Amino acid sequence: MNIRGLLLLFVLSFSLTFFSCTDDPSSIGLALLTDDKVEIKVIDSYQDSIPQYSSFFKSRLNLGADESLLLGKIRNLEASTLIRFAFNFGDSVRQDLLQNNIEVLEATVELVRNYKIGDDAVPFEFSVHKVHSDWTSAGFDEDSLQLLTYEASDISQEVELTDSLLTFKITNELVLTWLKAQAEENPAANKGLFLKPESTLEKALGFNALNLSLVNLPNLTVVVSKPGFYVDTVKFFVIEDISVVTGDIPVTVPENIVIQGGLATHSKLVFDLTSIPEDAVVISAELSLARDTLETLTGDGVVQRLSAFFITDRTELKVDERRRIDLTLSDNTFRANFTAYVQEWQRFKQNKGVVLRVTNERSVLDTYVIKGSSASDPLLRPRLKITYSGKN
Amino acid sequence: MRFLLAAAVIILLTAEISAQSSSGYSRFGIGDLEYTYSARRVGMGGLGASVEDIDFIGTLNPASWYAIARTRIEFGGSYKGLLLSDQNESNKYYSETEFTGFTLAFPVSTTYGISLVSGIIPYSTVSYNAVENIIADPQVGNYSVDYKGRGGLSKFFIGTSYKLPFNFALGASLDYYFGNLVYETALDFASSAIQDVVYQRIYKTNGIGTTAGIISPDFSSILKSESITDFKLGASVQIFNELKTDTLLWTRTATLSDTLSSGKVKMKLPLRLNAGLSFVLNKDYLFLFDYAFQPWSKYQFAGLQKKNLRDASKISAGFEYRPSKELGATVWEQIILRAGLSFEQTQYLINGEGIDQYSVMVGFSFPIIAENTIDIALQYASRGTTKSGLIKENIFKLSFGISLGEIWFIRYEK
To answer: How far apart are CA A220 and CA A66, in angstroms?
Structure first.
């Protein structure tokens, strides 16, 4: 091969590569490309005819992993709490407990507040009871609560409530019983405490529960004494806790739907999207929900947010728990980008609607009342605005 | 060995350096038709149905292979620049560089003119890119629409030639057409609340066809002129079976990727006729005149004819100066020079306006060693008009290639 020839070709090719300037694409030729045009259209449930349906229903929460403990009564809801503490101590203390050489001088339960709903001026009244029956947080529900047995007398004393803490003392005898049971390697005798709101209360609080980060855990501070030897203060932490919310489904006017934490009350919302062409591609969808300010009641300390879950089974109202779109509040309206859901409804004919929940429904007793699909004012109904593109 | 070296060099240099040119006309039918991939033919008008070369693999007429005397391999590439204007904008320049094809020929019997030839060459090209900027759309605000077309049909062929009595030459090839035609529309929205969306319409086509050709014996004796030799007539025809085409309309957004429609249809390409005559004047000067015709008005896709296509034809005239071989000639004295011009009534009929193309070409072959050349051709063409919302294209095309020949399969006596 002639090296000069190859070199010539090499130089030529690379010259073309590096010196072939090209302008940015321009509008020249657009008139020829009509077959490639894409139309953009908007369909808005305010203006266009998109049938919609909404309702609300009481749902059953799977309790046991909550990061909050609720206690109180507000509207239709009553929240009570169960707590059990773990007792760990050294072998010498254990021997002293077995030989009845230990006295409990004081026992104080401390709960860290994280939520409040209801009037500040209302005194927070509740009672604390020694539990007799076995319980476990896993699978505990309303029915379990009915079966729970506990001592009728209130064992709490010196209740103190600040902006950040709830503390109360419990009887020294009870705590000594728990300590001895642990020393005798019979921890099952420790069935914990049941915290129950007073029946006339119109207020509820939330407290930090057992959590993986082990921060601000419920604790029991015990002052113990071995007469003639020492007086010591020991802090024991929660090992198991749960709160259960009971109540009837809330009542509202027919045009509203309710979404409530704690109980929980969920709403279902379905839009009929059959008016969107089959080959359309949804590129934007926004859901707006108008909040009824008079009926809505929310607490302090949490972000007001709803979550929409994709319904996978309309009959049993099953949702895909992994797919969640949060609706944020502004100007008294909850809004969310619903594009992903609407795309799936429209493209794959999977339109079974969404279930609306309070985002942190296990930790709050908030009640959101939303204007439903039958609201007398069409402008207040759930609004779905869809932008879609269509190819010729 | 040098075949492999050359192949590697050419492919490395050209395969990855494509860009997008921007001929909106290629949106119609199967795109711009490629009459030839080689710099040699481009340099002399683009056709050459009656020309046979002993040192070149023509692709227009299989009968021309009968003259091939050595095993040959040839590669081609091109740089294409487009200077575009329409009624609104002017002088936008776009370019692309690409590997265009290669051919391989094995002479089996020079006595009977039998050669076995194969190759992959382009048949059509789709290449366009245009952007539309929409300002303050009442529904979605600002956004841009990017239209892109790319792809085309290629032809793999394998064929042979045969020299008949009275020096008629016949040739035929079995052609396999394949390729993707991709038309893309991408919408890019300024608002983050609206998902960008891409539509892609893809036609994946394949099917077979046949090319057959004939070249006459030398009729120069009829002219009774001593200065004219090799007066030949040639013709070829390309026939296509219906090409199977898988169609797909596909879309993609940030959260969705879906097929909107798909199907299988037939693409019916019209046959192409090529005819030409050529003669050599004073031993060194080859003149050729050609005509090609393809009734694109009969093109069908999914059983439907296209209103934007009409019958295409091309008339070309070419000239080649090939200095006689003389012992002791320098490299520069062996350079082959070419020139040509053509008029092409393209298949495009847009908005009632037929799109025509006028071209002039020049070229040369630079000898490496005997019958091994580097071929270069430069073409300027003018196509279209700015009337009726159309595009005026000034086309600058630099074609380059390498043509290598060796004697293979020769048994030397000890």
So the answer is: 20
| Residue B132 CA, distance from chain mean position | 30
Across B296-335, the runs of DSSP E, i.e. the strands, are 300-301, 304-305, 311-321
Buried b (16+ CB within 10 A) or exposed e, B378-394: bbebebbbbeebbbbbb
Look at B95 and A29 and tell me if their CB atoms are within 8 Å.
Answer: no
- Cα B140 to Cα A275, A319, B67, B354: the distances in Å are 20, 32, 65, 37
Return the residue matching tokens 């080689």.
B38
Does residue B253 register a pLDDT over 60?
yes
Cβ under 8 Å to A: B residues 185-204: 185, 187, 189, 191, 193-197, 199, 201
Q: What are phi and psi of B362, to 5 degrees?
A: -135, 160
Q: B394: closest CA among B98, B89, B85, B128? A: B85
Q: In the 8-state DSSP scheme, what is residue A253? A: -
Predicted pLDDT at A6: 63
Supply angle C-alpha B311, B312, B316, rounded to 5: 150
Q: Based on the number of CB atoms within 10 Å of its own CB, is A214 exposed (0-12), middle (13-18) or buried (19 or more)? A: exposed
pLDDT per residue over A48-64, tens digit each?
878 999 999 998 776 66
| pLDDT (0 to 100) of residue A65 | 63
Distance CA A205, CA B204 (A): 66
Give yes or no for a cis peptide into A65 (omega within 30° of 0): no
Q: Count Cβ atoms below 10 Å from residue A73 Cβ, excluding itself.
A: 24
Q: Is B328 helix (H, G, I), strand (E, B) or coil?
A: coil
| pLDDT at residue B174 greater than cutoff 50 | yes
Taking an 8 Å cut-off on Cβ atoms, the answer to whether B22 and A21 are in contact is: no
Q: Is the pLDDT of residue A7 over 70?
A: no
3-state secondary structure of A173: helix
Q: Which of B301, B75, B330 is nearest to B183 (CA)?
A: B301
Task: Give the per-residue pLDDT at A10.
Answer: 63
SS3 category, A21: coil
Q: How far is CA A86 from CA A69, A150, B261, in A?
A: 17, 19, 63
The two three-digit tokens of residue A328, written as one number: 């944020």
Distance (Å) from the alpha carbon of A54 to chain B's nearest alpha carbon: 26
Q: What angle do CA A164, A169, A170 make, to 5 degrees?
A: 135
Residue in chain A lying closest to B253 (CA): A283
Fill in the amino acid letter for B159: G
DSSP category for residue A376: S
The string of DSSP codes covering B70-133 is SEEEEEEEEEEEEEEE-SS---EEEEEEEEEEEEEEEEEETTTTEEEEEEEEE-EEEEEEEEEE
Average pLDDT over residues A294-309: 92
- Give CA A159 to chain center in angstroms: 29
Closest CA to A237 of A258, A256, A257, A211: A211
Q: B 102-141 residues with CB below 8 A of A?
A: 128-133, 137, 139-140
How much is the ipTM here? 0.84
For the record, the structure tokens of B344 come out as 């092409």
Buried b / exposed e along B195-228 (16+ C-beta atoms within 10 A): bbbbbbbbbbbebbbbbbbbbbbeebeeeeeeeb
Q: A-chain residues within 8 Å CB-CB of B29?
A: none
Amino acid at A129: H
Residues 6+ apart with CB under 8 A from A267: A54, A55, A56, A57, A257, A258, A259, A355, A356, A370, A372
Helix A91-98 and helix A172-183: axis angle, to 10°?
110
According to the model, what pLDDT value does residue B29 have? 95
Weakest mean pLDDT among A8-22, A149-163, A228-242, A257-271: A8-22
So what's the pLDDT on residue B215?
Answer: 97
